[in-house]
Design goal:
about 170 residues; alpha+beta; 3-stranded antiparallel β-sheet; 10 strands
């Protein structure tokens, strides 16, 4: 990780994902967040379901039992998925069924909304939330289209995840 300041610019874009960053430590849209949103995040405990992988294609690379899919009422390409993860044999590691616990995850279809656009709308919601004060562990904000987003921040106020609310 690098800390740097860009002269004369308060915000700027980095990486091929076009991630938008600030010259302050309150920025929520960094490479780690972008990777969490797109790819499986092994840092998230398995007890919380599939970590990261809000990108629909990446989410379904995981072995999940989909129980229900609800489409967002106003944002195309956004779905709320209710799912189960495999139950594994403690000795062999083989799948022996599905855990009873049901998990819920909001995912986006990259064929409808690009990774960069998902991040763009999410960062708009982050900035909306920041404009109301310091981000708490859980926060909510609105993107430029008026869609409500929910998210999580760590103890330092860095955003670790966000998604459109239903």
């Amino acid at each position: 990780m690098y800390n740097m300041t860009v002269d004369e610019f308060h915000t700027y874009f980095v990486s091929d994902l076009g991630i938008w960053v600030h010259n302050t430590n309150t920025d929520a849209c960094d490479v780690k967040l972008a990777n969490h949103l797109k790819y499986f995040d092994p840092e998230v405990p398995r007890s919380r379901g599939i970590g990261g992988a809000h990108n629909r294609e990446e989410f379904y690379k995981n072995n999940v039992n989909t129980l229900n899919i609800e489409k967002h009422p106003s944002m195309l390409g956004i779905e709320k998925v209710t799912y189960q993860i495999p139950s594994l044999d403690g000795k062999t590691g083989e799948v022996i069924g599905w855990r009873a616990k049901k998990y819920i995850k909001t995912i986006y279809d990259p064929k409808v909304i690009s990774d960069a656009d998902y991040i763009k709308f999410g960062k708009e919601a982050v900035n909306s939330a920041i404009s109301k004060g310091k981000l708490g562990r859980e926060w909510e904000g609105y993107d430029s289209k008026g869609i409500k987003w929910m998210g999580y921040a760590d103890s330092d106020g860095n955003v670790v995840s966000f998604f459109p609310e239903f």
